[in-house]
Each structure stands twice: as structure tokens, then as C-alpha cells.
Write a structure and sequence with these properties.
Blueprint lengths: L2 E3 L2 E3 L3 H26 L16 H23 L11 H37 L4 H26 L10 H4 L1
Antiparallel strand pairs: 1-2
Helix pairs in contact: 1-2, 3-4
């Protein structure tokens, strides 16, 4: 499997390394999901919320994350380590930077405006089509998705979302 060089373990292939990283990531994901699943019980009921408590949606997300973690472990254990993978690509670093900037600007810009630009950037990073062809759809989705999510969670489910500079407009 792997070899050692001066006491340091070095996997023979990038595929083998990626397999181990995916398994470690999955275990961490399951642990984080379990923590937040139980933490969701501490969320307090907000005025206007009825029947479904504030912990229901976070618990459902945690169950989904844990299931994904288990499925990834099973997938990694079943396949061989022959595929090549790049650990730190330019797109990954841009995506991480965009997520950090998103959280920094969230209270300033608010959920809707901040989500519009970050959804557009993330879609551009994941794009397989030529940008010239896809940008109109990307722009439409990046505007529509945050507005619909704000309507569902902010207005209908009464989840407090930051309004930022749109406070006067969104209430």
C-alpha cells in the first residue's frame, strides 16, 4: 500500500491519499452532524412559530449529512485507489475565499444581496459550459434562489435572516 521515507508515511498514489482523506472527512462530517443534531434541541421557539420546533430543520439537515458521510465511506471502501485527484485546486481556494467573504459581509449586505453574488460565484466555479452561454441562466438562478429562500424561511417560516442594507425594504 503506502511506503515510508524516513519514518513518514507516504501513500503511493494520489488516489490512495484521496480515499483516506474522504474517509477522514466523512467521519468528521458524521461527528459534526451528531453534535449539531443534539445541539438543535437547545434552540428556543420564536414568536409566531407553531407546531414544528426550531430544531426540526437543523435535525433533518444533520441526518442528511450523516447519511451522506456514511454513503461516502461505503463508496470509498468499495472502489480502488486508482483515480487521480488534485487536493488544492484554484477553484477550491476561490470557493473557500468566497464562503469566508460571504460570512463577513452577511450582516452588512443581508442574506438576499450577499447570497446573490456568492451563488453566482459558486455556479461559475462549478460550470462545465462556456461562460458566455451559461451566464444568463446563472444570473437568473443566483437572483431567484435567494429571493425564494428568503420568502420561504424569512417570511413564511419566520426564521430571522439578516436584512443588511435592505432593512427598509424587507422590514
Amino acid at each position: 500500500m503506502g511506503g515510508t521515507h524516513r519514518g513518514v508515511y507516504r501513500p503511493h498514489s494520489k488516489g490512495e491519499l484521496m480515499k483516506k482523506l474522504n474517509i477522514v472527512f466523512s467521519v468528521v462530517l458524521i461527528a459534526v452532524a451528531a453534535f449539531f443534531f443534539f445541539y438543535a434541541d437547545t434552540l428556543k421557539m420564536l414568536p409566531g412559530q407553531t407546531e414544528i420546533g426550531p430544531g426540526a430543520f437543523p435535525k433533518a439537515v444533520c441526518v442528511g449529512l450523516a447519511v451522506c458521510g456514511v454513503l461516502l465511506i461505503i463508496q470509498e471502501l468499495r472502489k480502488g485507489g486508482s483515480e487521480k485527484a488534485e487536493l488544492f485546486s484554484k477553484k477550491l481556494l476561490i470557493g473557500i475565499a468566497a464562503a469566508v467573504v460571504y460570512f463577513v459581509l452577511l450582516k452588512i449586505l443581508g442574506f438576499v444581496l450577499d447570497s446573490i453574488w456568492v451563488v453566482f460565484v459558486m455556479m461559475a466555479l462549478l460550470l462545465n459550459e462556456p461562460f458566455k452561454k451559461a451566464w444568463p441562466l446563472m444570473l437568473a438562478v443566483s437572483i431567484l434562489a435567494p429571493v425564494v429562500l428568503y420568502a420561504i424561511f424569512g417570511m413564511f417560516l419566520k426564521v430571522p435572516l439578516p436584512n443588511g442594507i435592505l432593512s427598509g425594504l424587507l422590514g
